[in-house]
Structure formats: C-alpha cells, structure tokens
Fold this sequence. Notes:
heterodimer; A: about 70% helix; about 0% strand; globular; B: about 25% strand
Amino acid sequence: MNEPVQTRSLPPAPGFLTSSLRIFDLSIGEMLWSRRTVFMLLIVAAPVLIALFIRALVSLGAPVLNGPGNVRMTGPAIFGMMIWIFYLRFTVPVLGVFYGTSLIADEIEDKTITYLFTRPVRRAAVLTGKFLAYLACTIFVVLPSVMLVYLLMVPLQGTLGGSFIDLVKDLSLLALGLAVYGALFALIGAKFKRPLMIGLIFIFGWEQAALLFPGYLKYYTVAYYLQALVPHAMPRDNAMSMLQGIFRESPGMAASIFSLFVIWLVCLSLAGRIVERKEYVLEQ
Amino acid sequence: MTRKTRYFLAGSAAVLTAGLGTGLVAYYVGGFQALSAAPVANELRYVPADSSVVAYADVRAMMDSDLRQRLKAAMPVHEQGQLEFQQQTGIDIEQDIDYIVAAVAGVNPHNGGLIVARGRFHTATLERLAVEHGGVTQEYKGKHLVSSPVTEGEHPQFTLAFLEDGLVAMGTLAAVQKSIDAQLSAQSITGNEEMMQIVSEVSEGNNAWAVGRFDAIASQAQLPAEIASRMPPVKWFSAAAHVNGGVTGTLRAEATDEESAELLRRQVSGALALGEMLAKSDPKIAPLMQSIQMSGSGKTVAISFALPAELLQLIPMAAAR
C-alpha cells in the first residue's frame, strides 16, 4: 500500500538583512584574524607608540613640546595634528583601499566564491555582509587607537574635558570615512581587474591633485567632504598642505555629511549590482 | 563568530567606552580646578569681576632672563626710566617685584586700569616718598592707601594700596577701591568660569599671559564703522609667552561660532603663506616665519611662534638708528 508522501515545504530564503548578517558573522572572524589585520595593527599602533614615547619624554623633563623653531605645542594641538597626518590622510584611506578592494577579490583568489554564491542568498547580500564585517573590523581597531592617543596626548597642557567634543567629532568622521572609502573601493574591487593599484592611485594621486587646484575637481573626491568635518586646523607640514590650505574651501557640515552619505549609498548599491550581474570566472 | 573574535570586539568596545566615559565625565565636571593651586589665585581675587582683560607677568623670571640681559645691554636708555620709577615710588622693578597681575575694565584706562604686584615692599619707605611728593594717605575698608595729590584736569588720582604683606595694588583711586571691594565681597574675576578656564590653559608653562574679551573691548573702542564692520567675530583672545633666551608664545582667539573660526583659520593660513613668501627675500625674519604654526579646533584659532633673541636685538638697534 502506498502511503501518501508528505512533502515538507521548503523554508523561505533568508531576507537580505538576515543574509547579510549571516555573511557578516561568517566573515568577521576571517577578516580579523587574517594577515591583512597584522598590517592594520601596525598602522594604528604607530601613533599610539609615538604618543607613549612623547608622554614618557615629557615625564622625564625633555622639551619635546617645543616644536620647530622652539615653538611650544600643546597636547590638544599635537592630537589634532596626529588625527590629520596619521589617521585622516593615511590610515583611513589606506585601510579602505586594502580591505575594500579585497572584499570580493579575496574570495576569487582563494576560489571560495563559489561556495558563497551557491548559497540561497543574494550576491549583493554577500557583498553587504562582507562590507559590514570590514567596517566592524576597522572601526574596532582604529577607533580604540584614536582613543588611546587622546588619553595620552591631550592632558599635556590641555584638558580631557576641553577636547571631548572634538574627540567625538573625530571618532565619528573617521568611522564615516572608513565606511565611505570602503564602499568606494568595494565598487572598484567589484568592477576592475587591478583594484588595488587603481585605489592607491586614487587616494595618493587623484585626491591630492584635485584638492590642490581651485575649481570643481575637488567635488569628485571623498577627502574634500571628509576634511570639511575635521574640527582641528589643517597642519602646514609641507608645501602640499600649505597650498591645499590656501585653496581650501570647505562645504558646510550638512552638505558634507549628505554628500558622503550619497557617495556611500551609490557606491555600495553599484557594487552590489555589479556583483549580482557579473560572471566571475575562476582562473584554473 | 568565534569566541576569540567576540573577546577582541568586546575588548575594543571596552577601550572605547572607557575613553568616552572618562572624557564625558571630564567634560561635565571640568571647571577650573587648577585655580586653587595657581600661584596667582590670591591676586586674581583682587581683580574686579567686570574686567575685560586680565594679564600676568613673572617679572622676576623676565628680569633674570638671558633676553633681558641682552636687551639691557642694547637699550641702556630704559635704565633711566627704571631709576625714575624707583625714585618716585621706592620700588625697584628688578629686585622688589616677583610677579604682577594687571586688569583693565574696557578701553578707557580711566575706567580702571589696575596692577596687583607681589614682591618685597617697604611700606614705610613707600609712604614717606609718596608724602614727600605731595601724596595723601587714607584708609579704605581696612587697607592703607596712598594717593597722588588731586590735580585739576583729566588726570585721575594715582593710588598705591597695601593689600597684604608683600602685595600692593596700583591704579586710579576708583580702580583700587573696586579691587578691594572685589576681594572682600568675593565678586572677583575668579567667578567668571569661562575666563578662568582660558587662564588655566594659558598660564601653564608661560611666564607672561593675557586673556581678554575681544568683543567687549571692540564695542567700547568706538571704532569707525568701516573698521568695526570688518572686525572678526572673536569673543575671547589670549596671548601667552615664555621668555628665556628668546620669546616663544601663542596667540589664541575663540570665535563666536565654528564657522567664524574656520573662516578665521583660512584667513590666517593665507596671511601666513604670504608671509612665508615675503620672508624668502629677508633672511632675518625667515626664522620667525618658519616657526609660526597655526593650530586650533572647534571655535579656537591659535598661532604659535618663536622670536629668537637675535631678532629681538634688532629692534633697539633699529630704534637707535
């Protein structure tokens, strides 16, 4: 006697957000304990070590707060310079390039992308989950470094309370910078074959040149909007900075935040769209 | 997410939370805790609450500095002024005064320029000299005052008050009386938290500083409309200097809002860039221009500089020519 076959209905595929979070959960551990993170830790440890060194020298009575030409610098001023030089101009864009371009590229190189794309999740959700993992990874490494530098440097001829609002602004804009650069380079990584080189040319070539010249070119950079949010004065450490300072025109805070949000949204959306439609051919 | 990853993220979040919490507590508690430990805390209690500018100078350190010795050799004419002051008041600026606190309420010095000086003063000698020059002694709320004779015309009465042992006040009669009232009623500049916060920041490590309300001074200065309309929207200004072999200092302005501060920073940047270009043709001022650094965040714009002793020595030489 044939018994009726009971069919079990398949559970629905997870939604976009659930899929993204699942991929996030899967990727964050891989990303955090990869070799690339060692490089990131070296980058963010440098300013902390410099701050520790300066603090130790000041405690021993060395005149380290005397800057060039025997000018006396204060802790908050040095903190502001370190935010500009170490974090805003180097750490944030470089981490955006190295991590953002490799979100999909690493999976292709390791030939593991097939395993991700055969799951019942949208490809864009895979990218989004990996992007969230990149963001969490970089934020939880970079921002504590900024915090340590703040606690070490600001009390030198300054007060923690007096610089607290600036610290909150710095942390917010660095997180925003990581998100926007990450989205931009995720798009470059999804679209182009040599994304790392393109990314490096963009941050060290295009952005520096576009900010130098007066005109509309600077509107096609991320740094233009990001630097407008910085509460510290731009340091005049070299001729490039000096010239950028002369031609610098800052958009308002609302305009900058809106523009950065638009760049982030457009880049991430386009990256997701490209990943959904592109046929990835793994090299044999 | 593995346990190792969770621990790392938790640790990072803990560092962030601890730092933000510390900063938040410091921001709300904050205040001028350093006032009670400051060497001029007592003198600031004699500065009236409505003073628009407060300044301090460590006279002892400046007189003993290498710069002072060099300038003294280059500008002997000022020795004469010092001797005249000593003959008139009995006070030897080089030996008797340790430090001074000066205050001004508004632009018109007749409104209350005041100097409070800490040092070693021979009360009897000072009184005798003042009386010999026609001075009048009087008591005011328990303090002994010596005033110059009343003269017809616009010159106010100059008064010297013996506030405490080793502490004198100098200024117009009204200003000195106001100073005594401020200390007795506890209505002094120390109640102005905003100013005291700036004083605590500039006083550390500097042997001369001045803090003032720029907008209050500008409004009382009766500037022409063309100039007044172009004045930068600055609320507070401060200048601090450390005098040793040369002068290293910081000029700081606090704007009324962040947008004004950003505009001011850009203006200063442009001026400094122009100055650097001009300095290339004059090697004497090149070290000064190279030493100038702009900094500041939020509503603050600050310029740090260093004047080497060699450059300062050129001033009296130029004046002599």
